Amino acid sequence: MKRTTSALALTTALIALAGPLAAQSQGDMTFGLGLAYVEPKSDNGTLAGAPLTISDDTQLSLTFEYFIRDNIGIEILAATPFSHDLYLGGAYAGKTKHLPPTVSVNYHFATKTAWKPFVGLGINYTTFFEESSPLGTLKLDDSWGIAAHAGIDYAVSDNGSLRFDLRWMDIESKAYLNGAYIGKADIDPIVVGVSYVHRF
Q: Of 31, 85, 39, 40, which Cα lies nearest the Cα of 61?
């Protein structure tokens, strides 16, 4: 978590250096391809009376953003399925996969340099599937929640940038074992992303 906090502090500092030059124009589109590391928060709730721990995972990420006004874009985030192991009281209790498509409105700060910071806010929908458990039939409900976004682009060409970004997602799922409700999984992950973004 110290790593995530330091990265957030760096992003905030870079945003503070933003200047008055336009970053993106109305009608521009970008496509991003990279990796996303999902790190659930440390306290994931209690299931069946035992503390829940959820493992991390890294997958391929895809983004598409359309600029509805200068420096303001609507972004769609997609990814290949994330896979997480579940532990109850430290003992392995199952696994699940999920997809977290997210739609955000991003504001890209105008700067006079190759560094282009941005912030965003949106809605996340997380769908869980292929749940399994040695304890029985496990089911996790899908989740809706807000998603916060911050990051920075570094221009490597007229149309290409390297991106580092962070997201926080509000993900909470009701859990059922053999049809019986056993509690809520509080995931609320930080998502660390690195990608190449191309502007069209």
A: 31
Kindly report the CATH number that applies to the domain delimited by 2-199: 2.40.160.20
Mean pLDDT of 159-165: 96
**Cα 45 to chain center, whole Å?**
20
Burial 144-176 (b: 16+ CB within 10 A, else e): ebebebbbbbebeeeeebebbbbbbbbbbbebb
What secondary structure does DSSP assign to 101-123, as a single string?
A: -EEEEEEEPP-SSSEEEEEEEEE
How much is the pTM?
Answer: 0.85
Say how many C-beta atoms besides its own lie within 10 A of residue 47's C-beta. 23
User: So where are the chain's domains?
Assistant: 2-199
Tell which residue, 123, 127, 108, has the closest CA to residue 66.
108
- Do the beta carbons of residue 75 and residue 122 sit within 8 Å? yes
Query: Which pLDDT score, from 0 to 100, does residue 21 have?
Result: 44
Pairing of strands 143-155, 46-47: unpaired
Determine the pLDDT at residue 112. 86
| Angle at the Cα of 119 from the Cα atoms of 113 and 125, rounded to 5 degrees | 140
Nearest alpha-carbon partner for 73 in 36, 28, 123, 124: 28
Please give the DSSP secondary-structure letter assigned to residue 172.
Answer: E
Q: What DSSP character marks residue 48?
A: T
DSSP class of residue 21?
Answer: S
